[in-house]
Amino acid sequence: MPDIYMNRWTRRIAILCVTTFISAASLASSLPDFPFVTVQGTASKELPPDRADLSFTIETFDEKAETADRILADTTVAVLNVLSTLSIPDSAITAYEISKYTKRERGDNYQDLAILGYEMSRNFTVELDNIDNYAPLFEALIKMQNVADVGSNFSVSNADEITLSLISAAAANAKAKTQTMAAGLDVKLGKVFAFNDSGSFDNFFASFGVEQRYRVEAFEMSVSGSRQRSTTVFIPQTIELSKTVNVIYRIEP
Q1: How far is CA 26 from CA 17, 30, 210, in A?
Q2: Tens digits of per-residue pLDDT, 42-65?
């Protein structure tokens, strides 16, 4: 092989080696260079929900696009009338863009197939600050023609305030667990080196730059129990707000 090609390959190998060395050095430098312990603290609280978000879709289909659009408009007016009856303000309603799809017969060549009709849809979200409006609105929506995919999400109005208190409680839980482990292992616990509230312990060091991918979970809500408001509507009796914090403590020699 000529020298010019040998030089090119030599340079490529050298660059690759240098790049690999730098990457490895950067990864290693992100790890603490002293004895340490990692701990996860959690805190949770169950509360009755006082607000809810309802999402749904208005879907129409007809051989003529004009007719499908008219049905969509008529259904939208009917939904808005229900919301007005419940005194839900326009500011609590979010309507997204209309989607239009062409329905064709099935076959090998899509472009040569006859058009069966046109499908139109529009997604909506309604924020309910008054939980008492949930049951009548839900019942009205599921009974309406051309309304589909009705979904609910329950929460509390002071979620931010509660989350802050849960962070403090989760941090205290992490500290207590660390002190217990240190006493059991007869080691001296040092100061906190780092902490986060990502809620992810499986990929703990990712939050400190050891890995490039990471996951963030501000807080989790789960439904526990339910209470029946009608024959078709169930509202959770309580929802659980939880918070997780991760902490790295130094271990003193």
Answers
A1: 14, 7, 8
A2: 998 888 999 999 999 999 999 999
| DSSP letter for each residue of 20-79 | HHHHHHHHHHTS-SS-EEEEEEEEEEEE---EEEEEEEEEEEESSHHHHHHHHHHHHHHH
Distance of CA 252 to the CA centre of its chain: 39
Which residue, among 177, 165, 236, has the nearest Cα to 201 in the 3D structure?
177
Residue 19's SS3 state is helix
Q: Please measure the distance between the N-terminal and C-terminal CA atoms of the chain and give it in whole angstroms.
A: 58
Per-residue pLDDT tens over the stretch 175-209:
999 999 999 999 998 999 888 886 454 555 554 54
Is residue 52 within 8 Å of 155, Cβ to Cβ?
yes
Task: Evaluate whether 222 touches 161 at the Cβ level (below 8 Å).
Answer: no
Report d(CA 213, CA 195) in Å as an integer.
17
**Angle between helix 134-142 and helix 65-85 axes, rounded to 10 deg:** 160
Rg of the chain in Å (alpha carbons): 29
| Whole-number Å distance between alpha carbons of 124 and 76 | 10
